[in-house]
Every structure is written in C-alpha cells, then in structure tokens.
Amino acid sequence: MEVTILVQATDKAFEILEKARNDARELLYSSAKLTSETRSLEERRKARDFLSGAQRSRLTLRNFAITSVLLFAFWIILSARFDAFHLTLGIICSLLVAYLSHDLLFSNIRLGDARVRARRFFAAAPWFLGQIFSANLHVAYLALSPKMPVDPQIIRFKTKLESDISWVALANSITLTPGTITVDIREGEFFVHALDRKVAYDLSTGEMEDRIAHVLMEADHIYIQDVLDVARIFGALK
Amino acid sequence: MTRVTDDIIIRTVARVLIPFIQLYALYVIMHGHHSPGGGFQGGVIFGASFILYLLTHGLEEAKARMSEMKAGLFSSFGLLIYSGIGLLCLIMGSNYLDYGRLSTILRVIPAQARSLGILGVEIGVGIAVMAVMFSIFFDIATGGEPPGGEESFGDRDG
C-alpha cells in the first residue's frame, strides 16, 4: 500500500518536473530570441533553427564580406606592393580564400554588435597587460629568491563561459600570464597548472573570466541551467 | 587520427588560423617570381591547411570540404595549366615553356610576358601540389580505401 503511494508520488513528482522542464524550455526559447547572444552548443543549434533562410544567407554574406576584408588587409601587410596588378591579385586571392573558408573564421552565430566587442576589448586590454606585467614580476621574484618558494599545483574549475572562442580566449590568457598554464579543457572544466599559492588564488577569484565574459558579451546571457533550476524550484513549490 | 579531436583549443585555433594559412599560401604562390617561394612551396602550405583541417575536424568534415575526387581533379587541372602553357609556347613556334613568345597573345613586351607566363605556371604547380599533398595524406588517413568505398571507414582508427 505504502509502496504504491510512494510510486504514485514519485510519478507525480516526475510529471511536475517534466512539465517544469518544458516550461523552462519555452521560456528559454523566447529569451534566446530576445538576447540573441552566444549560447552553448545545443542552444546554438536551436538558435540556428530560429533563423529563417533569408537571415541565414544574410549572415553567410556578412561572414563572407568580413572574412574577405580581413584577409585582404593581411594580404596588404604581407605583400606591401601597391601596384594595380598585385592589388587585383590580392582581391582575387582574398575572395577565393573567403569562398573556401568563410564559415571557419566566424562559425559561431553571433548577432551581438562587433563594434561593442571591439570597444570592450580595447578597454580591457590595459588590465590584461598590467596583469601580465605584475605576474612577470612575481615569477621573477620566485625564481630569484634563494629559497625559491614555489608550490606547484594543478587547480580545476568549471567555467561559466559558453562559446568555444571564449574558452580559448580564457585558456590563452591564463597561459599568457606567467606562472599559470592551461593544461586541458574537458567539457567546460579547466585544468590549470599554477606555480604557487598566490597565482592560484589570483586565478580562482575569477576576475579574468568575468572580464572575458564582458568583452565577448557573454555576461548578458541567460544560462539554461539557471532557468532549469528556477523551474525545478517552482515545480517543487507547486 | 581521423576522428575529431576533443581538444577545444586546438580545434578553435585551427579554425581561426586556416583562412590566414590559405591566404599566406596564395601569397607565396603569387609572389614566387619576385621573392622566395613559388608554386611548390605555396601548394604545400595550402595542402597543409587542408591537412590541419582534417586533423582537427575529422575525416567526414574534411571530405565535405575537399573530397578525394576533387583532389584528383585539381591535381590534373594544375598539370593541365602547366603543360597547357608549355604547349602553347611550343605551338607558337618556340621552345617548350619559352614564355617570351606569348607576348603576341598577351599584347605586352616579351619581358612582361615571361613574368606572366611563369606566374601562370606557378599557379598550375601550386594547384597540383596542393591537391596531391592532400590526397597523399587522405590515402594515409583512410588506409588507402577507394573513394566512395565502404561507408564505415571513417570509424576506423587511422
């Protein structure tokens, strides 16, 4: 008797949870439409389905145009010949490469404003440079002091960043900062080798992560896990 | 070897770098008659960009971008450009690959015709080398399966 009640209660609970999950998904769809920001892989795939054919082809065209302009600038730097013949060759080559690989450079769907990202990048650059400078001094102190008080350790933390390019930006910023090296990324979990307790502590405050999230416009994003958690709490309360 | 790498850093950096590698390859080909480089070197760099793509994104995606069939066609096409320019010189009544004679078709002075002729040959060599580099690597990665053979050979560990 008690077992049946328990089973029924569990079924009911699962039902509520399932409903809450569906509600959360709908909520997420509408929020995804509103924010149009970077999403996790699964959400990104769904976001792509939101776009109509015309929007998608416009996005492809935009990627193609930006890629070819960037490549042509790269060509000018390499070639440094400004006669018509070489410039024409450069335009042809940039268009050819953009045709071959325009989907590679900007494979993420990003509807956020590139100018905002550029401005935020230049605003954040001094902080990163200062961080690298002070870390340099710290590592020099560690190496030069007679006792050499190193305390090597591997720390792991789960990142809240979601796109692959942000992960790589964070991993490379960590590696660029002396004293810390990103060893591996496994499903959003970073494994970082730190030279001593201080640099490990500096990293664990998560300031670098926050700044990268800000530059790459991930901060304004609604996280799927948060929505699911809220929905679960609501479901349980009901 | 033929599977998608699970290292997100390598995959993303490769994704961002490949267009620039390809443009650098074209730069090396196009400036081969002014500066070090040329068709072979540029072709190898271009082929390397496809090989990098295959290593980081797996065999299936690389096949969608550059199939073995296409590689075969491109290698023949590059050879056709090379030998075509050479034979054109022969038909015009000069030696094989003696570009000076092409000045009558191109309507420029012979020295400039030589420059343009060698550029055309470099492009042909570049295309052929790129395609051959890729198809050699493709053969190694697939264990020499014929194109369009077994469905499942992508699953095999290379």
SSE layout and pairing:
The complex is a heterodimer of chains A (238) and B (158).
Chain A: H1 2-35, H2 41-50, H3 53-79, H4 84-105, H5 114-144, E1 153-158, H6 164-176, E2 180-186, E3 189-194, H7 197-204, H8 207-215, H9 224-237
Antiparallel strand pairs in A: 1-3, 2-3
Helix pairs in contact in A: 1-9, 3-4, 5-8, 6-8
Chain B: H1 8-30, H2 39-65, H3 68-91, H4 103-106, H5 110-142
Condensed summary:
The complex is a heterodimer of chains A (238) and B (158). Chain A has 238 residues and is mainly alpha-helical.
Give the tags:
heterodimer, A: 238 residues, mainly alpha, three-stranded antiparallel β-sheet, 9 helices, 3 strands, flat, B: 158 residues, 5 helices, 70% helix, 0% strand, elongated, disordered C terminus
Q: What kind of sheet is the major sheet of chain B?
A: none
Q: Tell me the β content of chain A.
A: 5-15%
In angstroms, what is the radius of gyration of chain A? 24 Å
Using the alpha-carbon principal axes, give the shape of chain A.
flat
CA-based shape of chain B: elongated
Q: What distance separates the N and C termini of chain B? A: 5 Å
Give the domain tally of chain A: 2
Q: Give unreliable regions of chain B as ranges.
A: 149-158
Question: How many helical elements of chain A?
Answer: 9
The ordered string of helix (H) and strand (E) elements of chain B is HHHHH
Mean pLDDT of chain A: 80
Counting helices, strands and paired strands, the structural category of chain A is mainly alpha
Number of domains of chain B: 1
Number of helices of chain B: 5
